[in-house]
Design goal:
The complex is a heterodimer of chains A (about 110) and B (about 110).
Chain A lengths: L2 E3 L4 E5 L4 E3 L2 E3 L4 E8 L5 E7 L5 E3 L5 E5 L4 E6 L8 E9 L7 E2 L3 E6 L1
Chain B lengths: L4 E3 L2 E4 L5 E6 L6 E7 L5 E8 L2 E5 L7 E4 L6 E5 L8 E8 L7 E2 L3 E5 L1
Parallel strand pairs in B: 2-11
Antiparallel strand pairs in B: 1-3, 3-8, 4-5, 4-9, 5-6, 7-8, 9-10, 9-11
The chains are: A mainly beta (about 110), B mainly beta (about 110).
């Protein structure tokens, strides 16, 4: 069975500082990993994904994430946070050997303070 | 930019009533999904649909739920007899070619009284 953990319900960071939103996963096979962002009263928006290849993947809005197989982690990062990055962030995993079901983590609310 | 559209944006219904939530996926997409989110928190998979049939469904998607793609553009979720615990935001999503880059609609909020 697949599962995703996001250990922090809330992350606060000052504008201009680097941000990290943590994600760890569990799958029986090899994972596809994703980050989605949800702004208030909106649907989820795709940010980035890891399928294969370089462990560091770059996505929309200056975000990047690093796949670490040994630690089963896929933390989301951005070098310099913006107030407009404040949103709910979801990590998701899909077992590439098991269908199309994405399992989403519980979400981490990011607040970037001016 | 193409988008997934959902109607209604909000529906209030009495327990035991049937509800149909409608979605128009992006026109050249082939994979379709329904997810739900309760209280703005956990996003739960309901069902995936490809090639005019359900490809996968979760435990939540019991006999009270059904999906259809009746006319090649709409993708509907029907709940036959709503329960209080069905109250949630329901999101439709589509994918061009099983890429994992889901495009989500803005959601339909269902309130069951």
């Amino acid at each position: 069975a697949q599962s995703v953990a996001q250990p922090e319900d809330q992350v606060n960071v000052a504008e201009g500082n680097p941000l990290t939103v943590k994600c760890t996963y569990s799958v029986s096979g090899n994972p596809y990993l994703f980050w989605y962002v949800q702004y208030p009263n909106r649907g989820l928006q795709f940010l980035l994904k890891y399928i294969t290849g370089d462990n560091l993947v770059k996505g929309s809005y200056g975000f990047e994430a690093e796949f670490n197989k040994s630690q089963t982690s896929f933390h989301l990062k951005k070098p310099s946070a913006l107030v407009s990055d404040s949103a709910l962030y979801f990590c998701a995993v899909r077992d590439r050997n098991y269908g199309q079901n994405f399992v989403f983590g519980p979400g981490t609310r990011l607040s970037v303070l001016p | 930019e193409p988008e997934v559209t959902q109607t209604p944006s909000h529906q209030v219904t009495q327990m035991g009533q049937e509800v149909i939530l409608r979605c128009v996926p992006i026109s050249n997409h082939l994979y379709f999904y329904w997810y739900r989110q309760i209280l703005g928190q956990k996003v739960e998979f309901l069902v995936s649909f490809y090639n005019n049939e359900i490809s996968e469904k979760s435990e939540i998607f019991d006999d009270q739920f059904s999906v259809e793609r009746p006319d090649g553009s709409n993708f509907t979720l029907k709940i036959r007899s709503t329960k209080l615990e069905d109250s949630a935001m329901y999101f439709c999503a589509s994918d061009r070619a099983d890429t994992g880059e889901l495009f989500f609609g803005e959601g339909s909020r269902l309130t069951v009284l």
